[in-house]
Amino acid sequence: MSRIVKIGKISIGGGNPIAIQSMTNTDTRDTKATLEQINALYRAGCDLVRVSIPDFESLDAFAAIVKCSPVPLIADIHYDYRLAIGAIEKGASKVRINPGNIGQSWKVREIVSAAKDYGIPIRVGANSGSIKESFKAYETKAIALAESALEETHILESLGFYDIVISAKSSSVIETIEANKYISSKVDYPLHIGVTEAGIFETAVVKSSVGIGTLLLEGIGDTIRVSIAGDPLTEVRIAKKLLKSLNLREGVEVIACPTCARTEIDVESLAYDVENWLEGLDKNLTVAVMGCVVNGIGEGKDADIGIAGTASGAVIFTKGEIVKRVKKDILKRDFLKLVKEYLRKN
């Protein structure tokens, strides 16, 4: 089991819940827009948010952002050690650096000193695009990636710093899995896992689900990011569904039939509606949306509550037993009423 590291009010490692991360894609200098996105990520279920600080104007804005953020913020720093120290002083709950691109060792030492003074962890690591030439002689690229991340870790350890989170990411699912398994076998620091540059929606969801899911099933990983090109809110929604599917987070799970010629309703559209109706509900609840009553009720009997389509509307059922027949125009009202009643009783 990995050791515990505290990131603000969130503890990771040591058997704590898997924390969901995402990253803002607003201009950090735009304090209002960045805070709006952070708050939206928080409402969606994000536990930790990373914010890029590329310059001193962004650092000044970060100070105001930290004061109003509902979640711990991670300062993402490259190259300039002064930005890392400034972010620590202005309230970052963790900094993400690559000691190898910070420069001279004394600059890394200054960052470590500030992190010690303020009691915050440092995330280090590598991705498949930043592996040094000297590591490319390893047997596989996955081991090269892992050893590259471990070298960054050893730099901090040599300075007497052990409040560390490690990340090793590749755009390859297999390399990501193998690299993190390798690191997990060598050290007990918490791991931030994910498939980097995973692509646009469908591709990113598949790659992240396989990569992150495989590692979590093997007990590897303490915080995750589902990397998707686009709206970071989508990353959080997918991450929640991924954790829910592995019984690692509470919440609503909507299952739906793949449809056939017997389908009486637009299953896909209704399933999306049901997800929206129940958004924000943090209770464990499995809801089935089925296309017909012929097979739908029997196939959805393991769900807590379900909807099966009919020619004139739908039937609502619980645990395979019909409890009400409803017209389409009052389906939402009656369904939510029965959900509330079911949760009250259970």
From TrEMBL:
Every IspG C-terminal domain range: 253-340
Residues forming the IspG TIM-barrel domain are 3-239
Q: Which reaction does it catalyse?
A: (2E)-4-hydroxy-3-methylbut-2-enyl diphosphate + oxidized [flavodoxin] + H2O + 2 H(+) = 2-C-methyl-D-erythritol 2,4-cyclic diphosphate + reduced [flavodoxin]
Q: Quick check: keyword Oxidoreductase in the entry? A: yes
Cite the cofactor comment.
Answer: Binds 1 [4Fe-4S] cluster.
Q: Has keyword Mitochondrion?
A: no
The cofactors named for this UniProt entry are: [4Fe-4S] cluster
Q: Which UniProt keywords apply?
A: 4Fe-4S, Iron, Iron-sulfur, Isoprene biosynthesis, Metal-binding, Oxidoreductase
Q: Would you kindly state one Gene Ontology biological process term found in this protein's UniProt entry?
A: isopentenyl diphosphate biosynthetic process, methylerythritol 4-phosphate pathway
Pathway(s) it belongs to: Isoprenoid biosynthesis; isopentenyl diphosphate biosynthesis via DXP pathway; isopentenyl diphosphate from 1-deoxy-D-xylulose 5-phosphate: step 5/6
Positions that bind [4Fe-4S] cluster:
257, 260, 292, 299
Q: Name one GO molecular function term.
A: 4-hydroxy-3-methylbut-2-enyl-diphosphate synthase activity (flavodoxin)
EC number(s): the record gives 1.17.7.3
Q: What does this protein do?
A: Converts 2C-methyl-D-erythritol 2,4-cyclodiphosphate (ME-2,4cPP) into 1-hydroxy-2-methyl-2-(E)-butenyl 4-diphosphate.
List, alphabetically, the PANTHER family matched. Answer: 4-HYDROXY-3-METHYLBUT-2-EN-1-YL DIPHOSPHATE SYNTHASE, 4-HYDROXY-3-METHYLBUT-2-EN-1-YL DIPHOSPHATE SYNTHASE (FERREDOXIN), CHLOROPLASTIC
Kindly give the NCBIfam families that the UniProt entry links to this protein. Answer: ispG_gcpE, PRK00366.1
Family named by the database record: Belongs to the IspG family.
Q: What is this protein called?
A: 4-hydroxy-3-methylbut-2-en-1-yl diphosphate synthase (flavodoxin)
